[in-house]
Amino acid sequence: MVPQRICTQIVDENKSFNKDIPQFMRQVNLADAGFNYHVVAVLGSQSTGKSTLLNQLFGTTFDVMDAGKRQQTTKGIWLSKAQESPILVMDVEGTDGRERGDDQDFERKSALFSIATSEVIIVNMWEHQVGLYQGSNMVLLKTVLEVHLQLFHAKKERSLLQFVIRDYIGTTSMENLSETIKTDLMNVWSSLAKPPGLESSKITDFFDLGFTGLPHKILCSEAFDTAVDSLRTRFANNDAPDYVFDPSYHKRIPADGFSLYTREIWETIENNKDLDLPTQQQLLAQYRCDEIIAEAMEPFTKACNILQSEFLPGNICENLPIRMQEMFDQVMKDYDRQAKRYNNAIYEKKKQELLRSVDTSLYVFFQAQLNALQKELVSSFMKTAENFPCNRPFKELAAKEIEKSKTRMQEEAQSLMIANIDWDSKQFLLKLSEELESSCNSVCKQKLSSKITEMRTTLETRVAESLEIALQKPNLKVWDGLLDELLTNQKQATDEITRLFPLFMDSTEPELNQSYIHDFKKDSWIAFRKKVALEMSDVLLQQRLRMFFEETFRYDSDGMPKLFKKSGTLDRDYRDSVTKTLELIQVLSCIKYSDGRIPELGIDVKEIDSSFSTPTEFLTILNRKRVSSTSVNLKRTADLIYLDCKRSLVSTQTRIPPYFWALLLVLGWNELMAVLRNPFFFMLLVLGGSLLYILYATGMIGPARVIANRAAAGVVDYVTDKVTDSYEDRTNMQRESSFSRENSSEKTSIDGELEKAALS
Ligand SMILES: Nc1nc2c(ncn2[C@@H]2O[C@H](COP(=O)(O)OP(=O)(O)OP(=O)(O)O)[C@@H](O)[C@H]2O)c(=O)[nH]1
């Protein structure tokens, strides 16, 4: 695209700087030119054809004076770009202008500005002005040299003073003219007050001098054009042997900083402050680097926001390392592309600032990724650890898994690392390590605890079963077997805990093992006692005591039911049984061996309940009050059983005595003989006897007796009913008879007869 041929007023006649220069730079396509551009300024007396020269030389469009009016056209400083070269051209208001009168301020300031910003300064003068020391040109040159010394003495920056002699007619050779100008310059130079250390310096230490003569534009227009074309080549063609833009002239201001730099320079000049160009350049570098950082950070921040929105908390972002690296590379590239051209120290310093910002932004992702990974690794470790085979040392397997997880974390941290940014992954590794250790310990504890719980449940089930069986038929040595079983099981379990402990826990912690054993004992004792208390509830205890009493009282040592024939035996057995049962209550009241020994609990009972002060208190199931009430109840139950037995004994004893049967035989001997001798009665007797024998032989004597008893009872009931009915009838009739007697004697006799009949 051909850039527009535009020119703009960089400093206006009121000395205000134009704020639209950045826009101008973009319009002329120089904003991104870096160092690949040049600046030329023209100085000279008013109306000496400066604008005309620039327009023809560079193809610019600066205003040119109307020949008829001869008044100043260029006011302030104008800026344009050469049509075919990356050259910025400044057309400076002419010196010695009558419009400003004696005000030399702007002249000096514009010269200062031109020299501070331009590589080549074209000094435009008529030929007839050369050698006129008192003329305005020398004043101008003095000003130029003065300000150059002021600005660049420290850095010894060089510039080219390109003298263009206008209306050069050729009568005086260019060599002579240039010598004259040089002499004038040296005179001016020697008259200048120089800074310390530069007293003996020469003008050529700071300036290169160039001289060109241009013929009269109007009178010798062709020659003028040819000379201008030749001069243009020196500006435009960098291969030309007399190319004007020596690299040492460049002010090293990147094109994107040109507007800012020139503005700062002008404001400093305008405010009459000391113009310290190195400082200005540093300030520019700082300012521009900040701007470049802000520009570079804009897409970077956007990319961060996008990444953040995709980064679900707690999740691992698969391509994070690549994306982070891309983002980092891009932002650094954006910064380097522009900022590298500025002051190196500032560039490096600002680069560190940018790195810190980028570091802070990216570290959030680094941190989030490693935290998410840590969570995942811990959770996966827990799952794996849960399924470790039980027959292999848990700790060893866990240590291998932990090592694997740590390596994974290290690898991830490494992949996220970015060159020039030093992130410390040690803290994440340490945290992961701690988390895994703690998870491992918790799984170990959980596994060991579940194994212990399993063992305790088995023990409790076994002992509870034995307890139920033993207490169903209690005896005076009931606790011996139960305690032996409990302690044997406890021993087996604690041995197993000791065996398992090093598989799950750090074997250098024997106290921990002891605490597991201790807890196991405590829990198993508590469970045992609880079960005993349950089995000794009032109802169950009474039932079991009654059973024990009955067993002792009603059955003999072979388990056969006793048949009490004598009252004395009954009483003695009753007393024995009651004594034994009461003794059993005493035995049951406290869990201890039959020889009175208290079992070794292996724990402090105060841990179970602070109200227990001795093992006996813990092992006591029935307190004195319950023993007493249980004994009273037992006594009552036993009394009832005793009475029942006594009753049955009395009924047995009140049967027909044997001597009665002998008496009956003696007295009824004749009747018996009569029956035996009578064939009918004899046959009846034989039949009856045979029937009885058959019933006895077939075992039907019992049922037959029951039937007989029932039949007899039926008969008795029937007879009783009949008698009762008859008695009631008779009573009713008596009532009616007495009522009739009061009314009629005749009726009385009838009633009397009826009554007799009824009585009969
Ligand atoms: N004699 C002579 N006149 C010229 C030459 N070039 C231009 N002029 C005339 O000089 C007059 C001033 O030209 P400008 O180019 O406006 O001069 P200037 O130095 O830019 O003027 P200011 O910007 O007002 O200081 C115009 O009328 C031109 O025609 C030249 O080479 N010789």
TrEMBL record:
One of its GO terms (cellular component) is endoplasmic reticulum membrane. PROSITE patterns: G_GB1_RHD3 (PS51715). Belongs to the TRAFAC class dynamin-like GTPase superfamily. GB1/RHD3 GTPase family. RHD3 subfamily. HAMAP family: Sey1 (MF_03109). Signal peptide: none annotated. GTP binds at G44, S45, Q46, S47, T48, G49, K50, S51. It is found in: Endoplasmic reticulum membrane. Its main location: endoplasmic reticulum. Residues 1-655, 701-760 are cytoplasmic. Pfam families: RHD3_GTPase, Sey1_3HB. It is a multi-pass membrane protein. This is GTP binding protein Sey1.
